[in-house]
Write a structure and sequence with these properties.
With about 550 residues, the protein is of the alpha/beta class. Helix content is about 35%, strand content about 20%.
Length: about 550
């Protein structure tokens, strides 16, 4: 890897990576002339790296490399593939602090969250290392003698992957690691907000022993750029499988393209997640969990809470305690302030969308409890560390008197804002929770077992927490949503193996002569000796 001197004001953060695409285990400057800068989200004076923008020619070259590597990689025994993934996990562990620092530097996560993101990738690697010895098929009895029936999992081929920037190492690990473990090869476009961590991810895989061409990385933007070229490549036959994390709108475009090719993509999309607080809830725990659900990562999680649906008997008390705690949250540059609860918006696009929601909520008639918009040097908190003018920092926002008919209750904002929706009973709470177009995550706070049971069975969401936040996922459990949040596929755990393999049924006839199923089966040759009429022996005598 090559580095250049950073800007004068950015030097305190480190050097600037002279980035490149990664094709066939080699740095590749690409065929285009355009480049972009990856800026520190917390301080735009810091240039984390400079990267080329991949053209369609680069997409073709990466896919060609992946296709050539596929034949050898699919024949590599799955336990051996698992061992490479295990070594990758060890390298992640060895470099955990450095990787977390790059995540913080690129997208503005706090140190605590960045370490957690890297740990999730480590956990995923360790889980799938052992899955290499458990890519089970099945053997089943044949209906004929001297014949065997069995099933095998087979890889698809080249997998196209596009990921978002808010979890730049955890989410890619959910997709890339199982795809590779199952014998596929990968062409990956990481977010333009986090290309540096993507380069390090690929380099560590190379160090772990991954053969050339098995994992290829292309940099660029989405619309009218690298992402669009990759999506167009679905119809051109470049990919046999596609996986995407991002907006529902783009997910639909990918779904349509895959549908034309009779492929099933893996889509992890948006969310407007409900957090229900019933009248018997532990409010102290609900407040603590609600704060992180709503404002952790500055609300830039697909699982962030969008609506707090709270019973009217405890609504005022909860609102008072929640507001008091939220007003004390520390905002700052997490590269300089390890105590910051959250940092900046990842990019200006997210920031502008967050600011636009103020007009939406006011037009709806929502009542603003708190919310000061964007930070500046004139209105920053007294304890703010850093320069708010060098990033896009925003205050936490809270709206009360929101109904589910309002646009602000239905729209994914993707920022540190949440709505209070008051309900009278559990039935109203469940209706409210299900009345959005999304169905990713959900949560309920209650000590009533009946509420717990009815909620987990009644809520239309891919994930449900009881007395916990809407955010957070363990690496061995399925992650994904329903409705506008996904297409039924799942990330993580053993369930994701279904997304990256196709079933092959095999039968082997060892009889020495042709046996035709259903025709020559012994089932149709069974002869009965007699027919018994049980009523001759037993007559009901009900009274």
């Amino acid at each position: 890897m090559k580095f250049t001197e950073n800007t004068e004001k950015g030097r305190r953060y480190g050097k600037t990576l002279a980035g490149a695409h990664f094709i066939n285990n080699k740095d590749d400057d690409g065929s285009g002339t355009e480049t972009f800068k990856a800026l520190n989200a917390s301080d735009h004076n810091d240039v984390v790296g400079t990267f080329p923008i991949a053209t369609e020619k680069d997409v073709i070259r990466a896919c060609t490399a992946a296709q050539k590597a596929f034949e050898g990689w699919r024949e590599t025994p799955a336990p051996v593939r698992g061992e490479i993934i295990g070594r990758f996990g060890e390298l992640l562990s060895k470099n955990k602090e450095m990787l977390a620092w790059i995540v913080t530097r690129e997208i503005g996560k706090t140190r605590r969250e960045s370490l957690g993101s890297v740990q999730e990738a480590i956990d995923t690697a360790h889980f799938f290392q052992s899955e290499g010895r458990r890519l089970y098929g099945q053997t089943v009895w044949s209906e004929m003698r001297n014949k065997e029936c069995m099933t095998y999992r087979r890889p698809y081929g080249v997998v196209g992957i596009i990921t978002a920037g808010n979890f730049p190492i955890a989410v890619p690990s959910w997709k890339i690691i199982p795809a590779l473990l199952c014998g596929n090869t990968v062409v990956w476009k990481p977010s333009e907000d986090a290309p540096t961590i993507a380069v390090l991810f690929a380099k560590l895989f190379q160090e772990a022993g991954l053969p050339a061409g098995v994992l290829n990385v292309l940099h660029g933007f989405g619309a009218k750029s690298t992402g669009e070229a990759m999506i167009n490549g679905i119809d051109k036959g470049y990919f046999q499988k596609f996986s995407f994390t991002g907006s529902t709108a783009v997910g639909r475009i990918i779904g349509e393209a895959c549908g034309r090719q009779l492929q099933v993509p893996s889509l992890e999309l948006g969310g407007k997640n409900p957090l229900v607080i019933m009248e018997d809830a532990d409010l102290d725990k609900a407040v603590e969990a609600g704060l992180f659900s709503c404002y952790g990562t500055a609300g830039q999680r697909c699982t962030s809470t969008g609506n707090i649906i709270v019973h009217e008997k405890v609504a005022d008390k909860f609102l008072s305690e929640f507001t008091s705690a939220a007003e004390k949250l520390r905002i700052g540059n997490p590269c300089l302030d390890s105590s910051a609860y959250y940092g900046p918006m990842i990019n200006g696009r997210f920031g502008e969308r967050y600011l636009a929601h103020f007009e939406m909520a006011k037009k709806d008639g929502a009542q603003m409890v708190m919310g000061k918009g964007k930070l500046s040097n004139d209105n920053k908190p007294k304890d703010f560390i850093g320069d708010p003018s060098c990033g896009f920092y925003v205050y936490p926002t809270l709206w009360d008197k929101v109904t589910m008919k309002m646009n602000v209750a239905q729209t994914e904002i993707f920022g540190p804002t949440v709505n209070i929706v008051r309900i009278k009973n559990f039935e109203e709470a469940l209706v409210a929770a299900n009345s959005v177009e999304y169905g990713l995550s959900s949560a309920i706070f209650t000590n009533n077992p009946r509420y717990m049971y009815l909620f987990k069975n009644g809520v239309d969401a891919g994930m449900t927490s009881i007395n916990n936040s809407t955010t957070g996922a363990e690496a061995h459990t399925p992650f994904g949503g329903t409705k506008g949040s996904g297409n039924g596929t799942r990330e993580s755990g053993m369930w994701v193996v279904d997304a990256y393999t196709k079933w092959q049924a095999v039968n082997a006839d060892l009889s020495g002569h042709l046996q035709l199923a259903q025709i020559d089966s012994e089932n149709v040759k069974i002869q009965t000796t007699s027919t018994s009429n049980l009523s001759d022996y037993f007559s009901p005598t009900w009274t």
